[in-house]
């Protein structure tokens, strides 16, 4: 039995100057039971788990993250943060540090790689793609979470769980048991938590696997470039592109090579390159090799009692359009403040259930758009004809804009009932007095943006900030923003506002 390696020990105060493990009241626990040591245990410190830990810490929730790996991922998968995720990073003051590690690219050609310029006048100051290695995002988010007081323990694989009326007991692979009031499975596509819950994961299995890796090549660069250009003229698909000094990134269909259960080898790559390009370019010395499929699945439930699922644990789809990580981070943003409200005891009835109600349809829509994109990448004549037709249609700004808003998630609208067009949507960053709106949202609280300067957040001031600014560029008198930046109410009537403050933020303080 090995003892888990604890990478982050308890710190005296967190980035907000608080003692992260001061005793919190544990509403609902019987007087004679020992309160669980943690409010929330998160299984998995990928992008979703790390983001969720940070969001919970903004609300003083005692968080432990358990990650089975002891080392950061060896693959250097470059992912793209899309507009909504970039906005979320700006909203929590994380964007500057991510920009240091990434490259801004145009917000275009996202849908099935159809080349069209991004629509003009996107309503976001962050209208670009941020290309950045996934391990960097994970490390930055983990650092942010630990700076806020989250504990992260590496080398801890969760193997079992049981829940009762007061909490969840989990068992680690080494037999150690830990207890918390809530548990969130952010443990990726093969989620142990999802399997232990018995939650179904219906959808389509992988039909086409792809090999991806980074390696050196013996052939001269000019010869490689000429061959790649020659193959591009055919209906064969592969990518072999320079990726740093002497290194090439290779992406090629796996089509029948090696056992899916085994990690791919350099010989698999050589074989496939010979099949597709007629030469293996003398590839050797791989930095890393991986294989991924195009399975598409959606968890039938995101919550079973005190246990919830987020990120790839709840949904998987092919990487086309680069949406999976973005979707997981956005799940975490939606769930964080709701679960915190539940833990802190001020959550209105059913607030936590709005997590599934809002996020499952968003994931279902992403699954659908990846299915559609895959069809459009087929070399069969029918899908190629549809692709040509869509390419023409995208010359209409409304079509191009619709598809971009889908992929970048700035078009997401939660169903909060009928009303103003902004209701349920994200509010873009605005110039306000003082500075910009997102700069005022770093602490993850609600916000009343009041152009009339007549309304008040009254007894909710401990959960909701107030900004009276008659000059804000807003097509509404007053807007109530949730901590995830979505619009919960629009109006100018104090009683109506109070009703909505109760709906989202619980009872007012005395
Ligand atoms: C080739 C490729 C390219 C991609 N490109 C993009 C892109 O451009 N943009 C984008 O948004 N997405 C992209 N994705 C998808 C993205 O990588 C995933 O959606 C993302 O990693 C999901 O994050 P997650 O935190 O939910 O899960 P994961 O990243 O899988 O993290 C889960 C974590 O849980 C840990 N874990 C698992 N089981 C246990 C256990 N029992 N106990 C403790 N810990 C456990 C794992 O070690 C892991 O660290 C791409 C995927 C692929 C394959």
Key descriptive features of the protein:
Glutaredoxin, binds flavin-adenine dinucleotide, 30% helix, 510 residues, 12 helices, FAD/NAD(P)-binding domain, Alpha-Beta Plaits
User: What is the CATH level 1 assignment of the domain at 34-73 and 138-203 and 297-377?
Assistant: Alpha Beta
- The CATH topology of the domain at 34-73 and 138-203 and 297-377, please? FAD/NAD(P)-binding domain
The general outline is globular
The set of bound ligands, ions and cofactors reads:
flavin-adenine dinucleotide
Q: Can you characterise this structure?
A:
With 510 residues, this protein is α+β, with helices and mostly antiparallel strands. Among the domains are: 34-73 and 138-203 and 297-377, 3-Layer(bba) Sandwich (FAD/NAD(P)-binding domain), CATH 3.50.50; 210-292, Alpha-Beta Plaits; 422-505, Glutaredoxin (3-Layer(aba) Sandwich), CATH 3.40.30. Helix content is 30%, strand content 21%. The protein has twelve helices and 23 strands. Strands 1, 2, 3, 7, 8, 9, 10, 17 and 18 form a nine-stranded mixed β-sheet that branches. The protein has a four-stranded antiparallel β-sheet with strand order 13-14-12-15. Strands 21-20-22-23 form a four-stranded mixed β-sheet, with helices on one face. The longest helix is centred in the C-terminal third of the chain and has 25 residues, at 353-377. The protein is globular, with a radius of gyration of 24 Å. The model is unreliable at 1-13 and 18-33 (pLDDT under 50). Flavin-adenine dinucleotide binds next to helix 1, strand 3, strand 4 and helix 8.
């Amino acid at each position: 039995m090995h003892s888990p390696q604890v990478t982050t020990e308890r710190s005296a105060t967190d980035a907000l100057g608080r003692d992260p493990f001061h005793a919190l009241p544990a509403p609902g626990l019987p007087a004679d039971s020992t309160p669980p040591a943690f409010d929330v245990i998160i299984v998995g410190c990928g992008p979703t788990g790390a983001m969720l830990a940070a969001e919970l810490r903004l609300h003083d929730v005692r968080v432990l993250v358990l990650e089975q790996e002891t080392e950061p991922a060896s693959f250097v998968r470059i992912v793209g943060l899309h507009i909504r995720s970039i906005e979320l990073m700006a909203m929590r003051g994380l964007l500057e540090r991510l920009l240091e590690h990434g490259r801004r690219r145009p917000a275009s050609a996202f849908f099935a790689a159809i080349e069209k310029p991004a629509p003009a006048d996107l309503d976001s100051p962050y209208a670009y793609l941020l290309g950045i290695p996934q391990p960097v995002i994970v490390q930055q988010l983990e650092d942010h979470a630990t700076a806020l007081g989250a504990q992260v323990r590496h080398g801890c694989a969760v193997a079992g769980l049981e829940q009762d009326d007061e909490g969840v007991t989990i068992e680690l692979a080494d037999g150690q048991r830990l207890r918390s009031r809530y548990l969130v499975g952010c443990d990726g596509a093969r989620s142990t938590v999802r399997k232990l819950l018995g939650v179904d994961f219906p959808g389509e299995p992988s039909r086409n696997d792809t090999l991806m890796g980074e390696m050196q090549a013996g052939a001269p660069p000019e010869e490689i470039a000429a061959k790649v250009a020659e193959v591009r003229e055919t209906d064969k698909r592969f990518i072999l592109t320079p990726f740093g000094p002497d290194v090439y990134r290779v992406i090629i269909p796996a089509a029948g090579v090696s056992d899916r259960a085994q990690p791919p080898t350099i010989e698999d790559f050589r074989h496939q390159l010979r099949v597709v390009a007629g030469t293996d370019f003398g590839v050797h010395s791989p930095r890393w090799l991986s294989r991924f499929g195009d399975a598409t699945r959606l968890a039938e439930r995101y919550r079973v009692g005190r246990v919830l699922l987020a990120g790839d644990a709840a949904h998987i789809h092919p990487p086309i359009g680069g949406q999976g990580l973005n979707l997981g981070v956005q799940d975490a943003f939606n769930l964080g403040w709701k679960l915190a409200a539940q833990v802190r005891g001020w959550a209105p009835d059913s607030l936590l259930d709005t997590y599934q109600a809002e996020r499952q349809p968003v994931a279902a829509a992403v699954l659908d758009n990846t299915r559609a994109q895959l069809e459009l990448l087929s070399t069969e004549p029918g899908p190629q004809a549809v692709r040509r037709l869509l390419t023409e249609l995208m010359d209409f700004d409304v079509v191009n804009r619709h598809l971009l808003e889908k992929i970048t998630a700035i078009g997401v609208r939660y169903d909060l009932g009928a009303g103003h067009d902004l209701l349920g949507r994200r509010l873009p960053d605005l110039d306000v007095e003082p500075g910009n709106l997102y700069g005022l949202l770093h602490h993850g609280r609600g916000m009343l943006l009041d152009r009339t300067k007549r309304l008040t957040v009254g007894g909710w001031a401990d959960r909701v900030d107030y900004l009276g600014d008659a000059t804000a560029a807003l097509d509404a008198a007053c807007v109530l923003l949730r901590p995830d930046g979505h619009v919960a109410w629009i109006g100018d009537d104090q009683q109506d506002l109070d009703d909505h403050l109760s709906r989202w933020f619980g009872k007012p303080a005395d």
